[in-house]
C-alpha cells in the first residue's frame, strides 16, 4: 500500500468564517510562489518549519541558550546562520515564547479532524478550505485530501494565487466546490513589483478554470498605493468581464495587524507604514465592479 | 420622557438604593412580640406575615401601570424603636423567620395557573374541604390542621392587602385631575377589585395579580419568581386581543413595566423568566408573548429579569435570530437551555412527565419544576481542589479554607508510585469532602423540616394541600438538593497536568509539585508555564484531558447518590458558580494546572479561563462527551464573542448554526458575553461611565462595575472568539 501523503502546514483553524461559505476549517499550508509585500501570513513563505519568537511571552528563564547546540555567547543561535532549525529551543520553551511554525500532517490525520466537525459543516453549509501559502505547491497531498473530502461529502474550497503549472491546477479542479482566486493586479509590471512574479501564468490559469466551468470567487486585496486606484480596479473588472461566466469578486481591505508575526520571524514588514483603506474608499472601489455588473462583496 | 424610560431610570435608582427593610423589620418584630402564645410555628409565621399585609405602607409611582413596591416612607418613633430592639433580640433566638428560605427562596416559581384561574377563593375552598375531611383517627391530624390554618391565615392576609391596594388606587382615581392618568388609575384599581380572591379574567389583571403575589412573597422574605409568563399569561392575552380589550402595544408596555419592576424589587438578584419549551401537555409554546419577553430585554435594557429561552426543534428561526441580535448588542441574555436534555434529566431523577416539561432555571441554571418544588439549590458550594491540597500538604490545607474530609484519609505521599495510585487517592478524598459537606446539609434540611415553614408558598406548591404538609416539611413533590462545584475544571486540568508532568514526562516530582504549589509558584515560573502550556487541557476536544472531565463528572454523580435528606430529596450536581468561583478561589492554594493562589476558580463547564485554544468548536467537542442530563442542578457554558465578530451578518448566522449543533449534541445550556476588552478595561478605570455595562458571570448576569475585582479580572482572562 502507498504511504499516505503528508503536507507541511502551519495551522488548522476551525470556526473560520472568512474563507468561504458557512463555518469552515481552514488548513494553512506552508510554502508560497509569490512574495507579496503586504502578506499577512509571513510564516507561510518557506516550505520548511521555522522559528518564531514572541518577546512578550518570554519569562527570561535562559533555557533556550543552554539547550541550543550552536549557542554563541550565552545566546541561542535562533535567527542566525548557525541555527540548524533543530527546534530544541522551541520544544523546551514552556512559556511558548519560541514556537516552531510548521508541522506535518497526513491525509488520514486531517480527515479525522475534519470528520469530527462534520455536523458543524452540515448545519452551516461550511466545509474545508485549503489555504496558505499556496496549497497548489503541495499538489499531491492536496489532490488526495480533496478526493478524500469528496468521498466523505465534505464541501471543499481552495484559496490560491494560481501561480502554479496548469497541470497541477487542472488535476484538483474536479474535487473543488469553490476556487477562491486572487487577482492582485492585471498590470504585469506592477504584479512583478508587488509580488516578485509575473502574472501571465496566473491570468492564463484563471481563464483555464473559468473555461473548465469551475465555481470561482475572485479576491483582491486592496493595498494602498498599489492597487487602490480606479485604473487598477477598472482593469480587473475588464478582465473578469471577458471570462467565460461572470464570477463574483470580494475586495479585502489591507490591514496591518500581522506586524507582530513579522517581528516574531525576525523579518521586516514592508507594508508596516500603510494604513487600512477607509470604508468610503472600499465602497468607492466596489462601485466600479457594480457599474460593470459584477457582484462584489466587501 | 416616555414611560418606559422614566420607569427604567426609577427602577435602576431604586434598585441601587434598596429599601433598608426598616418597615418590614418593624412589623415583623412587633408581630413576633405579640404572638408569644402561638405554639404552632407555622401559624405564628402566618400571623407575622399578616402583620405586613395589614400594615405595610402602600406606595404607588405616579407613572407606573403595575403596582407593588417597597416603601421607604416609614420612620419609627423612639418608643417604637425601643420596642423593636426587643423584637430583634427575640427574633434572633427564634427560627420562625429564618431558615425556611435556605436555598429555595428566590429560586422557586409557584403554581400561577392555580392563582390566576382558581383565585385565592378556589384555594381557600380546597383548604376547607381538607379541613372538613380530616381524619382524627390519624395521629397526624392536628399537625395537618395547623398547616391548613397557617395557609388560610396567610391567604386571607393577602386578600386584605389587595383590598388596601384597591382602596389606595380608588382614592388616587378620585383625586387625579389629569384625565389620562385618572383613567389609568381606574383600570389599576379595577385589577384589585376581584383578584386575587376571584379568578382573573383579563391579561392586565392577570399580570398585575402575578406581580402583586410576587411582591407579597418578597415582603415576607420568601421570594417566588415570575417563571414562564408566555405560558400562563397567554390564554388571557389571546382572549383580550380577540375581544379587542387590549392592543398588542399596550400588552407589550405591560411586559416592559413588569420587567422593570424586577429591577426595582430584586436589584441584581437574577430573577428568572423563561419562554418557549413545552407546556404541561407537551405542546410547544412559541407565541407572541415569547417574542415580547425577548424583545423587552432590549427595550428595558437593565440586568433583570434573567431571561432564558427553552430551546426545542420547533423554536422559530426568526426568534433565534432575534435572541442573537439582542445578545450581539451586549445584553448578555437570553441564555438558551436545551429542553430535551433538561427533561431527560428531570424524568431520570423521578419527576413526572408532566412536571418535567414545566420547569424554571431558578436564577442561573438550577432546574426547578414549577409549582411543586422545595429545592435546595447551590447547597453548598464545594471546591474539590482542596483534595489536591490535602495530598500535597500532608492532610491539611495549603492556604485559606481548611480541608474537610470525613472520615480522614490516611496515606503517605511517597507511596504514590503510579498515576493510578494518585488518582485513586484523589477520588477517595473527594468522596470524603463530599461526605463532610453533605452531612451538614442533611442536618440543616432536617432542622428546616421540623422548625420552619412557608405557609403562603405552600398554598401554591403541589402537593402540599393534598398531603397536609408545608413545602419544607414534605409537602412539595420535589425536594432535590443541588451541591455546586466551582473549580471542577481546575481539578480536571490538574489531574491531566499531574499525569503528564509528574508521572509521564517526569518534569518534576510530587514533592517538587507540592513545594511549587505551597510557594504559589514563586521562583517556579518555568514549571508553571509547563503546567499551563505543555499539559492537556479540558475544552479543546482532546481525550487526554477530557477523560478526566467525564470520569470526575460521573464519579461525583455516583457519590451524591449515597445521600438523601429527611424529606426524601436526592442530590444532583451543579456546574456553575454564580460569584462563588471568586469567593472560593480567594481561599484556595495554587493548583497544579498552573492557577495561582487566590485567583478565581473555573466558573462553568467549558474550559478554565483562557485555556480553550481551539475555539468554540474545541469547547463543544469536549463538553459533548459529558452526559449533561445528569446535571439538573444546572450546567452553564459561557462563550465570549467579540462585538466585531457577532456584529456581522455572517457572524450571527454562524452563532445560530453553532447553537443548533450545540443543542443537537445534548449540551445543557449556552450563554454569551459580547463585550469588548477595551470597554471592560475602561470600566475598571471609569466605573461611573459604565453603570449599566453588563456581563455574564457564572450562570447569571450582573453589572460589571458591581463585581469584585477578582471576578472582573477573571472575566478579562476568558478567551474572546473571533477577534480577528
Layout: helices, strands, pairs:
The complex is a heterodimer of chains A (298) and B (724).
Chain A: E1 6-16, E2 24-29, E3 50-53, H1 63-67, H2 88-91, E4 98-101, E5 103-106, H3 107-116, H4 118-124, E6 127-132, H5 139-151, E7 156-160, H6 166-172, E8 178-182, H7 188-195, H8 200-211, E9 216-222, H9 230-241, E10 248-253, H10 259-264, H11 279-291, E11 296-297
Parallel strand pairs in A: 2-6, 6-7, 7-8, 8-9, 9-10, 10-11
Antiparallel strand pairs in A: 1-2, 1-5, 3-4
Chain B: H1 3-16, H2 22-34, H3 41-55, H4 78-92, H5 112-132, H6 141-175, H7 179-193, H8 203-219, H9 229-232, H10 234-242, H11 248-266, E1 272-276, H12 288-300, E2 306-311, H13 317-328, E3 335-338, H14 339-348, H15 353-356, E4 359-360, E5 368-369, H16 386-392, H17 419-451, H18 455-459, H19 464-467, H20 488-504, H21 510-518, H22 525-533, H23 543-560, H24 580-585, H25 615-623, E6 638-641, H26 643-646, H27 649-664, E7 669-674, H28 677-685, E8 694-696, E9 701-703, H29 709-717
Parallel strand pairs in B: 1-2, 2-3, 6-7
Antiparallel strand pairs in B: 3-7, 4-5, 8-9
Helix pairs in contact in B: 1-11, 2-3, 2-4, 3-6, 5-6, 6-7, 7-8, 8-11, 11-12, 12-13, 13-27, 16-17, 17-23, 20-23
How would you describe this structure to a colleague?
The complex is a heterodimer of chains A (298) and B (724). Chain A is an alpha/beta fold and 298 residues long. Chain A folds into two domains: 6-47 and 102-297, TIM Barrel (Alpha-Beta Barrel); 50-101, Alpha-Beta Plaits. Helices cover 33% and strands 20% of the residues of chain A. Chain A has helices at 63-67, 88-91, 107-116, 118-124, 139-151, 166-172, 188-195, 200-211, 230-241, 259-264, 279-291; strands spanning 6-16, 24-29, 50-53, 98-101, 103-106, 127-132, 156-160, 178-182, 216-222, 248-253, 296-297. In chain A, the strands form two sheets. A nine-stranded mixed sheet of chain A has the order 5-1-2-6-7-8-9-10-11. In chain A, strands 3-4 form a two-stranded antiparallel ribbon. In chain A, α3 (107-116) runs parallel beside α5 and α5 runs parallel beside α6. The longest helix of chain A is centred in the middle third of the chain and has 13 residues, at 139-151. Chain A starts with 5 loop residues before the first strand and ends with a strand. By secondary structure, chain B is mainly α. Chain B folds into three domains: 21-224, no CATH class; 229-357 and 642-683 and 693-702, no CATH class; 386-636, no CATH class. Helix content of chain B is 51%, strand content 5%. Chain B has helices at residues 3-16, 22-34, 41-55, 78-92, 112-132, 141-175, 179-193, 203-219, 229-232, 234-242, 248-266, 288-300, 317-328, 339-348, 353-356, 386-392, 419-451, 455-459, 464-467, 488-504, 510-518, 525-533, 543-560, 580-585, 615-623, 643-646, 649-664, 677-685, 709-717, and strands at residues 272-276, 306-311, 335-338, 359-360, 368-369, 638-641, 669-674, 694-696, 701-703. Chain B has a five-stranded mixed sheet with strand order 1-2-3-7-6. In chain B, α16 (386-392) crosses α17 and α20 crosses α23 (543-560). The two termini of chain B are 40 Å apart. Chains A and B meet through β1 and α4 of A and α22, α25 and α27 of B.
